[in-house]
Amino acid sequence: MISGEKLKKLRLMRNLTQKELAIKSGLTDAAIRNYELGNRSPSKDQLQKIAEALECDISALINHDPNSIFEIMHIIFDYEKDIKFRPLVGEGETTSLLSNDTDFNNFLIEWDEMRKKHYNGEISDEEFEDWKLSFPKKSRYLK
Prior knowledge:
two-stranded antiparallel ribbon; mainly alpha; single chain; globular; 8 helices; 2 strands
């Protein structure tokens, strides 16, 4: 469930020790250490406290390991109605995925802007990674 690697990365990005994160989240430093090492997984309540302490969404701390590209395709199918996805086909080839969901479209616009800033050297690798891991908390659209 929790990614120890992501947890540690976010903790270090926030310049926190395991003990400081434990204090901010109301947990023990041994618990944080075990989560980072992958020895244990927090309860949903504990995960929420950690996310709040790190100023991120719970989803930034979770492993997302699809078995194949087909699993991602089925996730798109599952959310087709909710996010109003549809393929945009041009000249016989699928070229993009459209959505009529304002929040999702704003996400795509902001993601594209951040990728361009990163590519152009306006933001560092760490700043780009922080934006992604902190999304939607650091989004200018989704608050």
